[in-house]
Amino acid sequence: MTQDWNPDAYDRFQDLRLRPALDLIARVGALPHGKVIDLGCGSGAAAAALAARWPDKKLVGVDASPAMIARAAATGAYRRCDLADIRSWDPGKPSALIFSNAALQWVGDHAGLLPRLARLLAPGGTLAVQMPVQSGAPSHRFLRDFAAEMFPDRFDFTGWVPPVAGPMDYARLLAPLGQADIWTTEYIQRLPAARDGHPVRLFTESTTMRPFAEKLSAQELAQLIARYEAALHVAYPAEADGSVLFPFRRLFFVLRVR
After folding, report:
1. Which of 91, 94, 138, 167 is 20 to 30 A from residue 100's alpha carbon, by CA?
2. pLDDT digit string, tens, across residues 87-143
């Protein structure tokens, strides 16, 4: 993806996106000496909660988006904010906690990435991760199906695999690295009625839709959105007050390294 993220669009559903981060923070135990790293910090939504949980530790934000890292720095909660790619990022010194909320699903090769991140922790340190597991839901599947059918010259999902594996896969991957606590949660999110589009489309436009939008002209994107919204109205019908119930599954793990 070449276009930068849009912090305003992403933060439109900030409360819903923050809740999994708070649930993840609550499962992290005692930490050794070292910094707390908010890896893929985005606009800094979890910064205040991280700073409140570990007020005696230096909090560092890391993200590859200039727009997002600027928004995160403006919160004032971080000791430092670094513009860096997760795949090559290195803290320099062992960290007490590497916390990553809804970021690693954008990074491939988890079999190589997660052991590398574990090696960047101090003894007894923690890697805490949350990732959406939504790729098979209508909200995400429709985009792949429609884009491949409407624009086959740019979208081919032959051999496609979900960006996040199953809990058992992570259990096996993390077992040699330390003690891992792994779980999934399905949040029944109530999205408010909106005049500018179906609520689920508005939820996905700043994340899941980005790689699709980047390959389409404005006219082509409008055609895809029209078909996407029509299908969303069937899959996620409006409630009496105009809101929409949007089930959203997420995978969590907390790894304490040896």
Report:
1. 138
2. 999 999 999 999 999 999 999 999 999 999 999 999 999 999 999 999 999 999 999
Query: CA 132, CA 135: separation in Å to the nearest integer?
Result: 8
CB burial class (10 A; 0-12, 13-18, 19+) of residue 243?
Answer: middle
Residue 245, H or E segment: strand 244-257
Tokens of 250: 């997420």
**Domain residue spans in the chain?**
7-257
Residue carrying structure tokens 């909320």: 101
User: pLDDT band at residue 51, thresholds of 50, 70 and 90?
Assistant: very high
In this structure, what are the phi and psi dihedrals at residue 44, rounded to the nearest 5 degrees? 90, 25
Specify which residues 128 forms β-bridges with: 99, 254
* 8 Å CB contact between 29 and 53: no
0.90 cut: is pTM over it?
A: yes
Residue 238 gets which letter from DSSP?
Answer: B
- Cα gap 130→139, rounded to integer Å: 19
Q: Phi, psi at residue 209, to the nearest 5°?
A: -75, -15
How many whole angstroms separate alpha carbon 122 and alpha carbon 178? 12
Fold of 7-257: Rossmann fold (3.40.50)
CB 232 within 8 A of CB 201: yes
3-state helix, strand, coil in the chain (%, to 5): 40, 25, 35
Return the pLDDT at 79. 96
CA atoms of 198 and 215, how far apart (whole Å)? 22
Q: How many Å apart are CA 230 and CA 242, to the nearest integer? A: 16
Read off the tokens for 100. 């990553």
Eight-state DSSP code of residue 164: S
Residue 182 near residue 129, CB atoms below 8 Å: no
